[in-house]
Specification:
By secondary structure, the protein is an alpha/beta fold. It contains 14 helices and ten strands. Bound molecules: 6-deoxy-beta-L-fructofuranose and manganese (II) ion.
Length: 389
């Protein structure tokens, strides 16, 4: 085995991808939420399914929770349940986008009583982190406007900053807040955190425990996301990714499915900045919805897509690229990058899985396990988990 292959395999073995609890539940669009047999009914069953993804891939040991979708009486018991299945609880996601009170905004709402309610929910999420041992509080706000003049754009930023400050000051020493931006939806004229620049500015205003999370589905078409990655890495403000892919808007499809080249370019910036390892502190999370496809194999496939993009990025001949870039050799620079991208890394990944004691083909191995059929037979009755929207 070449030295390069060993280096790549070592980096891939240390990779960590967090899966989202809500991807195991029912999801859909405003037109229809299609149910599926075997969908979990409780956060405990979501953890069971997430443990399957880790069991077959070896690199998905944590599960992000969403509150109140994953509310339980005893979060320590949920953490113990996870530990018994070889996984752990990850980022805690707040939800201030599904209450009638938040129609005109949550922390940006003109009504101080509603702002208080929203901020208290965010503070409750930090208390949950204290119980689950989670490092990250992930904040996404659907707050925005549908018509010009509907509210004062600058005053809404003041309200947002005030709430973020209160939550930031509540964070423990080892805790972080991840500020997520999104161009539009559900607001269709102005969103209060629409882009990386707005998220970045609020994080700088707050302090070092505030980092930006890049959801790959939250940009205007044509946005160069890897530029945002490179920029935030340089500023040491890239805290996490919400990986998914899209053809049009926030489609939340399997990461790498719509644009594997974009995912490679993103991972290339991560590798170039030596920010792949857990010590770099970036949380690589999936944020997806499997509206029509079987959920667990889709999430396994998504983890494999991130591994493939990462393996290709690790194969970029960095010295040759530096030399070509520094000498202004445009074609050679692009060729060095494309050479890595066009490399079939599946044999190397299959070998890595064999080394890790895993089946070289995790999706087929999961299908052969019969787990999907078992949960379809066992999980009868009760309310299937979903967004409750
Ligand atoms: C918003 C978002 C956010 C989550 C939600 C499930 O579009 O990306 O990260 O809270 O999806
Ligand atoms: Mn997201």
């Amino acid at each position: 085995m070449t030295e390069t292959a060993d280096r790549v395999k070592d980096a891939l073995r240390a990779q960590r991808i967090e899966t989202p609890s809500w991807a195991y539940g029912n999801s859909g669009t405003r037109f229809k939420v299609f149910t599926q047999p075997g969908v979990p009914r409780t956060p405990f069953e979501k953890i069971d399914d997430a443990a399957q993804v880790h069991a077959f891939t070896g690199v998905a040991p944590t599960v992000a929770l969403h509150i109140p979708w994953d509310t339980v009486d005893d979060y320590r018991a949920l953490a113990d349940h996870a530990a018994e299945r070889g996984v752990a609880l990850g980022a805690i996601n707040s939800n201030v986008f599904q209450d009638d009170d938040y129609k005109l905004g949550s922390v940006t709402n003109p009504d101080p009583r509603i702002r208080r309610k929203a901020t208290d929910h965010l503070l409750d999420c930090v208390s949950i982190m204290d119980q689950t041992g989670s490092r990250d509080l992930k904040l996404w706000f659907s707050d925005g406007l549908n018509y010009p003049g509907q509210d004062n754009l600058a005053r809404r930023q003041d309200r947002l900053a005030e709430a973020l400050r209160e939550v930031y000051d509540r964070l423990g020493d080892d805790q972080r807040m991840l500020v997520e931006y999104k161009l539009f939806e559900p607001a269709f004229y102005a969103t209060d955190i629409p882009d990386w620049g707005t998220a970045f500015a609020h994080c700088v205003e707050l302090g070092p425990k505030a980092q930006v999370v890049i959801d790959t589905g939250h940009h205007a078409p044509g946005t160069n996301i890897e530029f945002i990655v490179a920029f935030l890495l340089r500023q040491k403000r890239l805290g996490a990714f919400d990986f998914n892919s899209r053809f049009y808007a926030d489609d939340d499809l399997m990461v790498g499915a719509a644009d594997p080249f974009q995912l490679f370019r993103i991972m290339h910036e991560i590798v170039r900045a030596d920010a792949l390892g857990p010590e770099a502190g970036i949380a690589f999370m999936l944020d997806q919805c499997h509206n029509i496809e079987a959920k667990i194999p889709a999430i396994i496939r998504s983890v494999l897509n991130v591994q493939e993009a990462t393996a290709k990025a690790l194969l970029v001949d960095a010295d040759a690229l530096d030399a070509a870039q520094d000498s202004g050799d445009v074609l050679e620079s692009n060729d060095v990058l494309m050479d890595a991208y066009n490399t079939d890394v599946r044999p190397l990944l299959a070998e890595l899985r064999t080394d890790m004691g895993l089946d070289p083909d995790p999706v087929r191995a999961y299908r052969r396990s019969g787990y999907g059929d078992r949960i379809s037979a066992d999980r009868v009755g009760g309310d299937q988990a979903g967004w409750g929207a």
